[in-house]
Amino acid sequence: MNKVITIEAFGDNYFYLLDCGAGSAVAIDCGDCSGIIKAVKAHDLQLEAVLITHHHYDHSAGAKKLKKKTGCSVISPDSKRIPGTDRVISGGDALEFANETIRVIATPGHTATSVCYYIEPRDGEPPMLFTGDTMFIGGCGRISECSAETMYKSLTSLAELPEDTLVYPGHDYTDENWRFAKLFDPDTEPPSTPSTISYEKQSNIFLRSDEPEIKEISSKPNASADEVFRELRARKDKF
Asked: How far out from the chain centre does Cα 102 lie?
């Protein structure tokens, strides 16, 4: 099997099943557990845990049922809002599953407790990043519980990861993000899932908020990157 199995749900959601070696696996996000259970059975894997990126129902609602059906543990950043959580994690934590080390990156912005999961490179394989609703291919999530400055800081922290890092987002919004980006850069072209940090730095309009040609869209002279990002996100909300 591929190391990462992408599981589609609800029209545009992505959940993932990661083969950790030695017959074990972890899932990333679980708004609905049926697709994950089918993938686990199809590949004869033991599901050790489901890692939740944030509390929104389309990423977490199926976790408790998945635990009941498979015996896996639920690992999340928010036990108050994610039922069934067995272990609460935060930025800087490291999780070990068979051959994989998974590092937790705190990325507040979309929600106050959003996290991303970063998989260390191993045996010549590139690192991987599961971004939930923080970073999409060519875009970013809506800001619902934090400031634009906080979201922008989280995005730019992800951009500091190795450029060959594979980016696995929580939704397929690529076409919409591409059409929005072309308003500012007609040469923008979207990749398929997964993207890479290198490509996002070149094409993701929200990561380019400090570039002079992108700053020209701002209504404020000499706007900061934070201010440009805030305006871009507000315009995307109405796109």
From this structure: 14
What distance separates the 2 farthest-apart alpha carbons in the chain?
Answer: 59
Q: Where are the domains of the chain?
A: 4-175
pLDDT: is 215 or 108 the higher one?
A: 108
154, 107 contact by CB (below 8 A): yes
Residues pairing with 157 in the sheet: none
Q: Identify the H or E element spanning 199.
A: helix 197-203
pLDDT per residue as tens digits for the range 20-57: 999 999 999 999 999 999 999 999 999 999 999 999 99
Upstream peptide bond of 162 is cis (omega within 30 degrees of 0): no
Task: Look at 196 and 222; give whichever has higher pLDDT.
Answer: 196
Contacts (Cβ under 8 Å, ≥6 apart) of 237:
142
- The Cα 171–Cα 136 span in angstroms is 7
pLDDT more than 90, % of the chain: 86
For residues 227 and 219, give the distance between their C-alpha atoms in angstroms, rounded to a whole number: 9
Q: Note the CATH number of domain 4-175.
A: 3.60.15.10
